[in-house]
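call fold(seq) -> tokens
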Amino acid sequence: MSYNLLKGKKGIIFGALNEMSIAWKVAEKCLEEGAEIVLTNTELSIRMGQIKDFAEKNNVPLIPADATSEEDLERLFKETMELLGGKIDFILHSVAMSLNVRKKRPYDNLDYDFLQKTLDISAISFHKVLQTAKKLDAINEWGSVVALSYVAAQRTMFEYNDMAEAKAMLESIARSFGYIYGREKRVRVNTISQSPTVTTAGSGIKGFDSLIDFAERMSPLGNASADECANYCITLFSDLTRKVTMQNLFHDGGFSSMGMSYRAMHQYNKSFENGETK
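ret:
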């Protein structure tokens, strides 16, 4: 059901790869709510994924750009404003990758070159997006920028590895840049701390299926899906949330406020049913 929440608004969606991507779902919802969008990802991701098909099917511009490259970002914003006929109103940053995770390097044996790449791709790119947009005055007043985060920024999550540092930095950038952008341009900057969600990136984390199951048992409302996350993003892009900025907003079915749930305790007790000592 459409509410026309984004009618007349324009935006850029970073990071859509395929139908599993939260960014893909957000792009779909933006179109449903009346927005004009530009999609962007790296050349490699465009070749590997199905985002080109999405762009062609929906007659949406697709501009290759590396979010870690200031030159690429400047070109992206300029081309977007030319294609859409002016400044934009919203941005989704859904960009994250860890070579340490991909190469199965444990947290106590990190490759530091890989760590630098993790931070550059997953967090510093967010600062580069914001800084480039501000320098070019690319976002209208009361515009909204959202980046996707995870509770591992605040809590230790087994096997989440150096992505935890990246998410913590991402959230800090939203607060620091959000103050400046809000004060000077009335642009909102927030992060959404999403439930563990089955995506191409998430599935690369060791034990991810168990993490999803654990979060489902702990959350009173259950895990939030990619579609539900997209709906939440839409509200933050809309004029309904004009005074929400510099926030890390938990969208996780209540997981972040839980200590122990009945379902998790029940499963824990079951593990001792075979006569093991508690």
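The two ends are 50 Å apart (CA to CA).
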